[in-house]
Design goal:
Number of strands: 6
Distance between the termini: 31 Å
Shape: elongated
Largest sheet: 2 strands, antiparallel
Number of helices: 4
Structural class: alpha+beta
Strand order of the largest sheet: 1-2
């Protein structure tokens, strides 16, 4: 029943691994393992506190591929908004063509963002003096819209009560595992 583990010492205990059953594939130990800490909300979105005791290592690995696709959409924004990832660091944004680089730096004890480019061209930055604005054009990595959708679906199912998922969402669980559509 307890789904949440907090780092701030106000903890609800997760089920012991031997008592866990995966909500997504329906398996339990010894058929699957629960060796990984499965986050209900990904670390890339800033979550360091909410873990699941109903996601096995196999499902966690599969859903990680969906999460990676969603991360491609957020890449520059995670740096711009200084959202820390797994290593508790703000990621550097550097697309494949390296037309722009955004990184968080320490400047005399203060955090700041450094935005640089390799070549001077009008495609990377545009300045509008009248509006007093600067537009930055990002060359995003390609991503799979279907896997992004599956990531969002998995996120919604993670936040839903177990009884509701079992009762109403079997087709969604099958879709996550490519058993339908």
């Amino acid at each position: 029943k307890s789904l949440i583990k907090r780092q701030d010492k106000i903890q609800k205990q997760l089920k012991p691994k031997a008592e866990r059953k995966c909500r997504y594939c329906g398996l339990s130990m010894p058929d699957v393992s629960f060796k990984d800490d499965a986050h209900m909300i990904p670390e890339m979105l800033g979550n360091k506190s909410f873990f699941s005791d109903f996601e096995c290592a196999s499902c966690n690995k599969l859903f990680g591929t969906y999460e990676d696709q969603f991360a491609k959409i957020l890449e520059p924004y995670r740096t711009l908004y200084e959202i820390k990832g797994k290593e508790n660091k703000i990621p550097t944004y550097a697309p494949k063509n390296e037309n722009i680089r955004i990184e968080s730096n320490d400047f005399f004890g203060k955090k700041n963002l450094k935005i640089s480019r390799k070549t001077i061209d009008t495609k990377t930055f545009s300045f509008d003096k009248e509006k007093e604005s600067i537009d930055i054009n990002f060359d995003m990595h390609s991503f799979s819209p279907q896997k992004v959708y599956k990531f969002l679906l998995k996120l919604a199912l993670s936040m839903s009560p177990d009884e509701e998922v079992k009762k109403h969402y079997q087709i969604a669980l099958d879709y996550l595992w490519n058993k339908t559509g």
